[in-house]
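Action item from last week, closing it out:
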Amino acid sequence: LERKPHRVSASGVATGVNSPPPSNQAPSVMMVGSTAMPVESYREAQRYFDLFRAAINLAYPRGDYEIGVHEPSALCVVKGRQVFKFPFQPEAIKNHYVTFRLVGNNMEKYFAQISS
């Protein structure tokens, strides 16, 4: 009987018959719906998304308005009496968040500002 060679990791632990070395690499892209984006962009977009959601929830605690992610197109959706969509991208979310804050966290003024 012929023995198949086993790979041995740096710590001396056999990893299995010719199995590829374990991957310690973090993924370089994240999927948002069907859209792949670099992890750093995703983290930055998620941070602005969370800030925007917190600002909306603070201004409208009864849940009159909300922000969500629309799949599979990876768009942010601000819902209320009007629906407005924009890309789940750091710059886009940041611009909408800043606009909302600049109009005094007022959704009517925000919608008027982004619609003009």
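Closing note: The first strand starts at residue 6 and ends at 8.
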